[in-house]
Specification:
The structure holds two protein chains of two kinds.
Chain A: E1 4-13, E2 16-26, E3 31-35, H1 42-50, E4 57-62, E5 65-66, E6 77-80, H2 92-102, H3 107-121, H4 136-148, E7 154-158, H5 166-183, E8 186-191, H6 194-200, E9 203-208, E10 211-216, H7 218-223, H8 228-233, E11 240-248, E12 254-257, E13 260-263, E14 271-279, E15 284-286, E16 293-301, E17 305-312, E18 315-322, E19 332-337, E20 343-346
Parallel strand pairs in A: 3-8, 3-9, 6-7, 7-8
Antiparallel strand pairs in A: 1-2, 1-4, 4-5, 9-10, 11-14, 12-13, 14-20, 15-19, 16-17, 16-19, 17-18
Helix pairs in contact in A: 2-3, 2-4, 3-4
Chain B: H1 11-39, H2 43-46, H3 60-66, E1 67-71, H4 74-79, H5 86-93, E2 96-101, H6 104-135, H7 141-150, H8 160-170, H9 176-201, H10 204-212, H11 217-246, H12 249-254, H13 262-265, H14 277-297, H15 299-307
Antiparallel strand pairs in B: 1-2
Helix pairs in contact in B: 1-14, 3-14, 6-9, 6-11, 7-9, 9-11, 10-11, 11-15
The chains are: A alpha+beta, B mainly alpha.
Membrane topology (chain B): Multi-pass membrane protein
Protein name (chain B): Carbohydrate ABC transporter permease
Domain ABC transmembrane type-1 (chain B): 108-298
Chain lengths: 365, 313
């Protein structure tokens, strides 16, 4: 198992820059998520770590060794493809043993190893079946078997649950995470599904347009987004942005919107211009007496909670409140916000302003 | 793979379709049957009018195909010892004796060498080129592919004279190598284009999985891509072989002796001792066999090959 260090990694396809100078470190044994919308460069980054694409510039260290320009076959990593890419002309057993055969392992040893892996994955009874007729879940398990059979330094997974039914995906996600915890293997996992990333990852890198927007634990990324893109991409419904213009000074603990002071964590940098008051739906509360007013536009009932769409002078908001609280469309209500969870953004650049909340997380100045 | 139809055809539609297929088969197979039957007729039966459907089969055509004969006088024939073999007996019935074997066997062998040789070379080069065009960023890829295709934009025989002169200068006239190279040059564009289509359909992930599993690019190519492309290779090989096997014009022009193939030879049989249609028909019948066997052996692949890409797996 190994630590993976990425330094100033860059990839261009002709004029198109797929990945712009990424740097991050994947600790030994970590379950690491590369998250972002399609075309953001996450898969290209993964393929560069695996050696399926060569970087235009930058370094990749696996277990301390620089492998940036080495072919995939010499990197000792395993890759699980989105469509599984099981060899269609071989049965399950041959598929799983294929990586061992390339190492010249003896037949007896291969048999033993395949038996062990199939026991872990619970696929002993399908070993002699052709891969063509397997269910999605079994294909997934065979693909995992082919990956773990070799004890590689790290696992790369490219949206491995993307091809499964929604119902089965949940189950496989748990199985994957359990397998990771059991083997404690460094895993790099690409997904566009923020729930999957939050649910499974130890750390998440959020990418957009080839640029790393934020890198951190799921909690940090959710609670302390570094950019408006991250705040909007993570969470369902995503973070709300109340748009306003004004001035804040360092040390301030409130901002003025529509003549009402709204609380914020202690601001660490002065700013003047267009801003957004970023607040998660669950940090908005209804209060009849509150001075900041809004009109309820729509109510979505979700069982224990309900999502309110609210019209405010600073734009639309979505709030998640308890279902027990009465709310009807058309009503005028007052809103209060959990000030210590709020992030202020510079609307021009999209970056978060430094505050007491996120000072430890933001890397930029 | 799954198949479906929007509506199940009614039994009457099936019956009509079946009739059409059978009718079409009869029409296309009639000339073949004619050739096959003529091969077993006597020369007199072969040109009788109205044509004989029922006749007494004779192997005379096949004997004449494989032998050269000389006419002898009845006195000379009397003087000979009795015929030792059944084919000698057939020949003597016509007041002739066997002078030696004909050249049909050699010409047939030439056809086999040149046909299969050029097919193999076309497939070998075509597969490598198609793989490269399919997988790598080749500079000027589209232009090169168009250039390869453009070699088929006029009938090959249009350049017969330059090729004839070129072959004479290079000493390739009437050689096996020359004919193999020529047929390969004609077939290679078909092979590259067809095979590129097949290889494009094979997901790259299979090779990438093999690369990750510790195999080199070339190992991944022949262990993973080739088995997947077998269907396409088989159908392309059949098309290449059919062309090289049946080619007549270049063979007439460029070969006369050592490397002559069967197609230009078969018509010359007719000149030996009168109009020997049964021998010509026998030559044509035997000439059909190799392509037929090759096609039947690969027909499963061929069927899958022709529908490949139309059906989403």
């Amino acid at each position: 198992m190994a630590e993976i260090v990425i330094k100033n990694l860059r990839k261009e396809f002709g004029d198109f820059v797929a990945v712009q100078s990424s740097s991050f470190t994947i600790e030994d044994g970590e379950f690491f998520m590369l998250l972002g919308p399609s075309g953001c460069g996450k898969t290209t980054t993964l393929r560069m770590i695996a050696g399926l694409e060569l970087p235009s510039s930058g370094d990749i260290y696996i277990d301390g060794e620089e492998v940036g320009q080495k072919p995939a076959s010499q990197r000792d990593i395993a890759f699980v493809f989105q469509m599984f890419a099981l060899y269609p002309h071989m049965n399950v057993r041959k598929n799983i043993s294929y990586p061992l055969v390339s190492q010249g392992m003896s037949r007896a040893a291969v048999r033993e190893k395949v038996a062990e892996v199939s026991r872990i994955l619970g696929i002993e009874d399908i070993l002699d079946r052709p891969v063509g007729g397997l269910s999605g879940g079994d294909r997934q398990r065979v693909a995992l078997g082919r990956a773990i059979v070799r004890n590689p330094k790290a696992f790369m997974m490219d949206e491995p649950l993307g091809a499964l039914d929604a119902e089965f995906r949940e189950h496989m996600a748990e199985e994957l995470r359990a397998l990771h915890d059991r083997m404690n293997a460094t895993t790099v996992y690409v997904t566009h599904d923020q729930l999957e990333a939050m649910q499974m990852g130890d750390k998440i890198v959020v990418m957009n347009h080839g640029v790393i927007e934020q890198f951190g634990t799921p909690q940090d990324i959710y609670d302390k987004p570094a950019t408006m893109f991250v705040a909007d991409f993570i969470g369902s419904p995503p973070m709300n942005f109340l748009k306003f213009s004004g001035t804040v000074d360092a040390g301030a603990s409130a901002v003025r919107l529509e003549h009402v002071d709204l609380p914020v964590p202690e601001v660490r940098e002065a700013f003047d211009g267009d801003m957004a008051y970023g607040v998660r739906p669950e940090h908005i509360h209804l209060s009849d007496a509150a001075p900041y007013r809004a009109t309820i536009d729509a109510v979505e009932y979700l069982g224990t909670t309900q999502i309110l769409t609210l019209d405010t002078p600073n734009g639309k908001l979505r709030a998640r409140i308890s279902s027990e609280q009465p709310a009807r469309a058309g009503e005028s209500v007052g809103l209060t916000f959990n000030g210590n969870t709020v992030t202020l953004f510079d609307r021009q650049s999209g970056r978060a302003l430094r505050s007491e909340l996120n000072a430890g997380v933001l890397s930029h100045g | 793979m799954s198949s479906f139809s929007i509506t199940e055809p009614s039994s009457r539609q099936k019956w009509a379709a079946g009739t059409l297929v059978i009718l079409y088969a009869v029409i296309t197979l009639l000339p073949l049957f004619w050739i096959l039957a003529t091969g077993f007729k006597t020369p007199a039966d072969a040109i009788s009018y109205p044509p004989k459907i029922l006749f007494e089969p004779s192997l005379e055509g096949y004997v004449n195909l494989f032998t050269t004969r000389t006419r002898v006088t009845p006195e000379q024939l009397e003087a000979l010892p009795p015929p030792e073999t059944w084919y000698e007996a057939i020949v003597r019935n016509r007041d002739m004796v066997i002078a030696g074997p004909s050249r049909y066997g050699e010409r047939f062998l030439n056809s086999l060498i040149i046909g299969f040789g050029s097919t193999f070379l076309s497939i070998f080069l075509g597969t490598l080129a198609a793989y490269a065009f399919s997988r790598f960023r080749v500079p000027l890829k589209d232009d090169l592919l168009f250039f390869i295709l453009s070699t088929r934009m006029m009938p090959p025989i249009a350049v017969a004279i330059p090729i004839f002169l070129m072959f004479r200068t290079l000493g390739l006239s009437d050689t096996h190598l020359g004919m193999i190279l020529l047929y390969t040059a004609v077939n290679i564009s078909l092979a590259v284009w067809l095979l590129k289509g097949f290889i494009d359909e094979i997901p790259r992930e299979y090779e990438e999985a093999a690369l990750i599993d510790g195999y080199t690019r070339f190992q991944a190519f022949y262990k993973v891509v080739l088995p997947q492309a077998a269907t396409g290779i088989a159908s392309t090989a059949i098309f290449c072989l059919i062309f090289a096997w049946n080619e007549y014009a270049f063979a007439v022009l460029l070969t006369s002796g050592t490397a002559q193939t069967a197609p230009p030879f078969i018509p010359t049989i007719i000149g030996v001792g009168g109009q020997d249609w049964p021998a010509v028909a026998a030559g044509a019948t035997l000439f059909l066999v190799p392509v037929m066997v090759f096609t039947i052996l690969l027909r499963k692949h061929l069927l899958r090959g022709i529908t490949f890409g139309a059906v989403r797996k």
